[in-house]
Specification:
heterodimer; A: 162 residues; alpha+beta; Ubiquitin-like (UB roll); DNA polymerase, domain 1; 2 domains; 5-stranded mixed beta sheet; B: alpha+beta; Uridine Diphospho-n-acetylenolpyruvylglucosamine Reductase, domain 2; Uridine Diphospho-n-acetylenolpyruvylglucosamine Reductase, domain 3; Enolase-like, domain 1; 3 domains; 4-stranded antiparallel beta sheet; binds flavin-adenine dinucleotide; binds FE2/S2 (inorganic) cluster
């Protein structure tokens, strides 16, 4: 048992857990943030994707202890002041989900992807970047459409702000 | 996952000391191989010594044509270093096709070569680039480092701290990626030096792990062009056969990937 402290969605949090506890279980069970999902035991599906120190990562393949002291953002940390994040809004507008199980990971992946590419994305890049995320429902088409729409909007907003 | 004890190292010295004090301990870097393996209960280290945040083991340095990459440098950092791409774009491209973005944000070069998975990408680059593996106690030439499937020359408790190599005049890497995992079903890294020396290293195909193909090296030394490979034969008897591809299929892939690597070089 160890006491672990990290920043999650801008708030400093602490919890007791085993050294072997995975970050995803710390987030779901200690912190009660159940938006981050577990979809596989082979590190391949991406349902568990969160951001650690500004980069997407699989919280099912990292110990909570490894993440101690870091800055974590989960799906619950995206919407500000009750308003959906542009990527969330784009998934809603473009029917980018069906059952919704993969969606938190898809949205966190999309936010990281758009940031890394400064909003400049095309369909082939989005599909290649989705290598680590599996969706069993949508056939990906509307997920790609949602990400492109969000990138265009966020890229546009950035240009307007400059 | 079985129970374990987690320790975070603050320096190379600290890491080696923590590892020595531990029973059946293991170093932990990006964890992208070790944690999944522990989850499956295929590994049960009593202790984990986390080296991901050891400052001396992080970062990329390029001085002239000499490249040094810290062992705890992530695949993403290797893929996105402009300095590195300016002298050896082939290794940047290799890193950018490992696994997926999330794996690249965590997985490290040191963990990949210490693990020496027969289907991993980096071992081929290390061997073709004639890289030197730097550890807490010595320097090991890549040719002596990779000794078999998941086997290396590392002693118990020996820590990889960095790798270094001279950027070559030409280099190229191409793999046939397993459609599910993105590991190399066969990958070939080709290198040509200013003095005409050529090295061709093959990963994903050898039944004893990464290897150099002397026949291709001879053909490309005589004529540095994809056409020079047309008449080279690849012996299937030492190649892997598994559910993904049998040895003769891999023998063909070796040649096709070598030609593509040449085209990319
Ligand atoms: C979904 C998925 C897809 C992947 N696809 C690919 C792919 O396409 N190509 C590919 O090459 N790899 C692939 N990988 C593996 C990935 O590249 C790993 O990051 C890498 O193999 C191990 O690096 P790590 O830093 O994560 O090491 P860890 O998992 O932390 O450690 C691996 C092993 O190396 C030892 N070790 C770690 N660091 C050191 C050190 N500095 N000195 C001595 N020993 C050390 C550990 O004790 C352990 O035994 C994939 C992984 C996943 C989960
Ligand atoms: S739950 Fe993390 S990759 Fe599937
Ligand atoms: S919406 Fe059901 S798994 Fe993606």
């Amino acid at each position: 048992m160890a006491k672990i402290t990290m920043t999650v969605n801008g708030r400093q949090v602490s919890g007791q857990c085993d050294d072997r506890t995975l970050l995803v279980h710390f987030i779901r069970e200690n912190l009660g943030l159940t938006g981050t999902h577990v979809g596989c035991d082979t590190s391949q599906c991406g349902a568990c994707v969160v951001h650690m120190d500004g980069r997407s990562m699989k919280s099912c393949s990292t110990l909570a202890a490894q993440a101690a002291g870091s800055d974590i953002t989960t799906i619950e940390g995206l919407a500000a002041n009750g308003e959906l994040h542009p990527v969330q809004a784009a998934f809603k507008a473009n029917h980018g989900l069906q059952c919704g199980f993969c969606t938190p990971g898809m949205v966190m992946t999309a936010v990281d992807m758009i940031r890394r590419h400064s909003g400049h994305l095309d369909e082939a890049t989005v599909r290649a970047e989705l290598e680590g995320n599996i969706c069993r429902c949508t056939g990906y088409h509307n997920i790609v459409k949602s990400i492109l729409a969000a990138a265009a909007e966020m890229g546009g907003a950035r240009v307007a702000a400059e | 996952m079985y129970e374990t004890h987690y320790h975070r190292a603050s320096s190379i010295q600290d890491a080696v000391k923590l590892r020595q004090a531990a029973g059946e301990g293991k170093y932990l870097s990006g964890g992208m191989t070790l944690i999944p393996t522990m989850k499956q209960r295929l590994a049960a280290p009593t202790d984990l010594v986390d080296v991901r945040q050891v400052p001396e083991m992080k970062g990329i340095g390029v001085s002239g044509r000499t490249v040094r990459i810290g062992a705890a440098t992530t695949h993403f950092e290797v893929a996105s270093s402009a300095e590195l791409a300016a002298v050896c774009p082939a290794i940047s491209g290799l890193a950018s096709h490992i696994g997926d973005p999330h794996v690249r944000h965590m997985g490290t070069i040191g963990g990949s070569i210490a693990n020496n998975d027969p289907a991993a990408d980096y071992p081929s680059a290390m061997l073709a680039l004639d890289a030197t593996i730097i550890t807490d106690r010595r320097e090991i030439a890549a040719g002596d480092f990779f000794t078999g499937l998941f086997e290396t020359a590392l002693e118990d408790g020996e820590l990889v701290t960095a790798i270094t190599f001279e950027a070559p005049a030409k280099a190229g890497y191409q793999k046939f990626a397993n459609p599910a995992s993105r590991y190399a079903m066969t990958g070939v890294f080709v290198v040509r030096r200013d003095n005409g020396d050529v090295r061709v290293a093959v990963t994903g195909a050898g039944s004893n792990g990464v290897f150099r193909h002397k026949g291709m090296e001879a053909a490309l030394s005589a004529n540095w062009s994809p056409d020079a490979l047309v008449n080279v034969t690849v012996d299937a008897s030492d190649l892997l056969s598994d559910i993904h591809a049998d040895a003769s299929y891999r023998a063909n892939l070796v040649k096709v990937m070598a030609k593509r690597a040449m085209a990319a070089a």
